[in-house]
Amino acid sequence: DVARLATLLGENVNVSRLSLNDCNLGDQGAEHLAEALAENEVLTSLSLEGNRVGDRGAARLAAALERNEALTCLSLGRNCVGGQGVKHLLDALESNYTLLTL
């Protein structure tokens, strides 16, 4: 259950890299993970490739990036992010200075 994983990720103090590729998370899963990312201070790399994440999920991840100061790499390849989702992510980069790879 991605909600439980997100809760654990929010409390995480050890895991710095996480790959959840091809887990069929969709926008709802991305939203749960975004909540955790907003609080997490340890995770530096998150891969969410091939998870059917669309504009709604990308918007929530972007909002988390505005608060997150640890993540340096976020991989969203092979998803369904369209123009609006990309715009949200680009806007988030205006206030996020730690993310190096998107």
TrEMBL record:
Alphabetized SMART domains for the sequence: LRR_RI (SM00368)
Alphabetical keyword list: Repeat
InterPro entries the record matches: Leu-rich_rpt (IPR001611), LRR-containing_regulator (IPR052201), LRR_dom_sf (IPR032675)
Keyword NAD attached: no
TM regions (residue ranges): none
Protein name per the record: LRR and CARD domains-containing protein 3 (Nucleotide-binding oligomerization domain protein 3
